[in-house]
Specification:
The complex is a heterodimer of chains A (557) and B (83). The mean pLDDT of chain A is 87. Chain A has 17 helices and 18 strands. In chain A, a hairpin with a 6-residue loop joins strand 17 and strand 18. In chain A, 38% of the residues lie in helices and 18% in strands. In chain A, strands 1, 2, 3, 4 and 5 form a five-stranded mixed beta sheet that branches. In chain A, strands 7-6-18-17-16 form a five-stranded antiparallel beta sheet, with helices on both faces. Chain A has two domains: 78 residues, Penicillin-binding protein 2a (Domain 2); 329 residues, Beta-lactamase (3-Layer(aba) Sandwich), CATH 3.40.710. With 557 residues, chain A is of the alpha+beta class. With 83 residues, chain B is mostly helical. Chain B has a domain of 40 residues. Chain B has two helices and no strands. The longest helix of chain B is centred in the middle third of the chain and has 53 residues. The chains are: A alpha+beta (557), B mainly alpha (83). The interface between A and B is large, with 45 and 39 residues.
């Protein structure tokens, strides 16, 4: 009815009739003005209450939001703090959680020459404490008159000595050092990690380790030590240039031991010699010689070849090319049956079996067992096998182990398929979800059984007799090959090897031993062969490790 | 009504500050605990490294040679259950 700015005052008369009065008083008979004011007041109250309500809601929302934010931020900061603890470089452990590599917090020594109380006294003291360092180094460090690194990874004794000097120029900075408590034992597997150098597992699994995750190897410290000790003894005894050994579980492909000599101590990178850097088990390849003959037997078994029933006359040698004639001077018999070809390791017999089978099945078989592919082991560097350009022209040589160079790990993996029931396996060096144990049936169980019987006979009747072990049945194949030098084969330098399984009735483990250029042998006989060098070493190793790794069926552990 | 609103605001304000202080206190405690854990972990690792060095096979062999002269168990020393 009334608007604030347009009130109709028709009904309002001045109360005082006198127009001389200074103030005119009006009287609102119907309280219209009062009502209008009340109305305005109510409206204002409504609006202000609504505003306060909005303010309260906003404030509560703001506080609630902040509370939520604080609580979220809090949980995040806690998890970050927790991560901070975990983010230390992970350890490398053996299969029984023994430490192979770990990081320790150490201190580095720096000197700030400008802050020294007495430079000449400090210099003398440092020369005395670090007497293994050349004094000229300190002369140079002090002449620079600046902040200089003196020594990394101080020992606790050195830290105490430095603190006793009490010179403000001495600055100790926190640092991390990778230590390898087992020294040389795992050097070719772990490699090493320094501030500017890394190799092998330390390099290839750097991301996993730097995220603070431990790496658990499939290697067993106890076995590794025995294998290295026996291999080193034999290497010394036979005066060989280098040697290697691999122990593998034939059913799941896990490598229990891998030793390559010469090796190095990863704690002292500056002392590593160039010839000790490579892991010969994965980074070298050899013409294996007679150890490859066993693949011929497997082809014959798998194809059910008639050669199994044939007799082989080896008395007159065999002309395999126009220039090359081979003879088996080491065999006294003239006529050999199928098994005897392998038991006595006849080159001629092996070529004759191949001629009966044909080169194509041989090539296909080598492809099937993986000898034509590059074998991969997660975490380790491997080399591919060197294959002939034309298989057909080399197949006869390949039948007795020449014309094809294979890496030891490749041979071992392929051999596993022959003895484990015919399954192709993937070698693994550390436990991981990515390293799932792959198994694929590629050969018949019957072939595998026959191979196991044959290699057992090779040890008990043939060239591998020095590989036998008291208390456990073993089977295996010897190998001797002449080294290729300047386009021809050396008459003196040989590669000797033995590949075998134990226990041979139901094989579980495989062991491979190889020596490069042995100069003597166990009998001091003229010829160095796999039978008188690698086979006895195999025996010594298996004698000691079988109670450890094959312990489940015995009374103790 | 206004008084009630202001009271709520005041209570929430007090609560927020209390919670924040509580969180700050807990964070400090966690930091202290973490640094304690780190210190203990470092000590454990040093001890583990010591143990690994002192129990490595070469060390054990030299102790055995000096003190006990025990021979390793060979395969031939073991009788199988079926035997």
């Amino acid at each position: 009815m009334f608007k604030n700015n347009n009130v109709n005052f028709d009904n309002i008369k001045p109360s005082n009739q006198s127009f001389s009065a200074k103030k005119i008083r009006f009287r609102d008979r119907n309280d219209l003005v009062l009502n209008a004011e009340k109305e305005r007041s109510i409206n204002f109250s409504k609006k202000s209450n609504f505003f306060i309500f909005l303010l309260t809601v906003s404030f509560i929302s703001f506080v609630s939001f902040n509370l939520l934010k604080i609580s979220l931020k809090d949980s995040k900061s806690v998890s970050l703090s927790a991560n901070k603890i975990e983010k230390k470089r992970g350890k490398i452990l053996d299969k029984n959680n023994e430490i192979v590599a770990m990081s320790l917090e150490t201190k580095d020594l720096y000197i700030d020459v400008r802050k020294s109380l007495d430079i000449s006294v400090l210099k003398e003291n440092l020369i005395r404490i670090f007497d293994r360092k050349n004094p000229i180094f300190f002369e140079r460090a002090f002449s620079k008159n600046q902040y200089t690194l003196i020594e990394k990874n101080l020992s606790p004794t050195d830290i105490n000595k430095l603190k006793m000097l009490g010179d403000p120029a001495i600055k100790l900075h926190k640092s991390n050092k990778r230590v390898y408590p087992q020294h040389n034992l795992f050097s070719h597997v772990t490699g090493l990690k320094t501030s500017n150098l890394s190799s092998k597992l330390e390099k290839n699994l750097d991301y996993t380790l730097s995220e603070g995750n431990d790496v658990e190897l499939t290697l067993d410290l106890r076995v590794q030590d025995i294998v290295r000790e026996e291999l080193a003894k034999s290497l010394n005894q036979y005066q060989a240039k280098s040697g290697l050994a691999i122990i593998m579980d034939i059913n799941d492909g896990s490598i229990i031991s891998m030793v390559s000599l010469p090796d190095f101590n990863p704690n002292y990178p500056e002392e590593i010699l160039p010839n000790s850097e490579n892991n010969l088990a994965t980074e070298a390849r050899y013409e294996m010689g007679s150890t490859l003959k066993i693949f011929n037997a497997a082809i014959a078994y798998e194809l059910n070849s008639t050669s199994q029933n044939e007799k082989f006359n080896i008395s007159n040698g065999l002309q395999i090319t126009t220039e090359k004639k081979i003879e088996d001077d080491h065999i006294k018999k003239d006529i050999l049956d199928f098994d005897e070809v392998f038991i006595k390791s006849s080159n001629i017999g092996s070529v004759m079996i191949l001629e009966s089978i044909g080169y194509k099945p041989q090539e296909d078989f080598y492809k099937l067992v993986g000898l034509k592919d590059e074998i991969k082991i997660e975490g380790l560097k491997t080399v591919s096998n060197k294959l002939p350009k034309k298989w057909e022209s080399h197949s006869k040589f390949i039948s007795y182990g020449y014309g094809i160079s294979v890496s030891p790990i490749s041979l071992v993996t392929a051999f596993c398929s022959l003895v484990n029931g015919g399954y192709k396996i993937k070698p693994i060096i550390y436990k991981s979800d990515n390293n799932k144990k792959e198994k694929k049936k590629i050969l018949s169980s019957n072939t595998s059984k026959k191979i196991n019987k044959l290699i057992q006979r090779i040890v008990y009747e043939g060239t591998g007799k020095y590989a036998s072990v008291d208390g456990i049945s073993v089977g295996g194949k010897t190998g001797t090959s002449k080294k290729a030098e300047k386009g021809s084969y050396s008459e003196k330098k040989v590669i000797t090897s033995f590949i075998g399984v134990f226990p041979s009735e139901t094989p579980k483990f495989l062991a491979f031993v190889l020596f490069d250029e042995p100069k003597t042998n166990i009998n001091n006989s003229i010829e160095n062969t796999g039978g008188n060098t690698a086979a006895p070493t195999f025996s010594k190793i298996v004698k000691k490790i079988s109670p450890i790794i094959d312990s489940e069926k015995y009374f103790y552990r | 009504m206004k008084f009630f609103s202001f009271l709520i605001i005041f209570i929430i304000l007090v609560l927020t500050i209390s919670i924040k202080l509580l969180i700050a206190n807990q964070e400090t405690k966690i930091k202290n605990l973490n640094s304690e854990i780190l210190k203990i972990e470092k000590n454990i690792e040093k001890i583990q490294a010591d143990i690994s060095y002192t129990t490595r096979p070469q060390e054990l062999k030299s102790i055995n040679k000096k003190e006990f002269n025990l021979s390793p168990i060979l395969q031939s020393d073991i009788l199988k259950i079926e035997d």
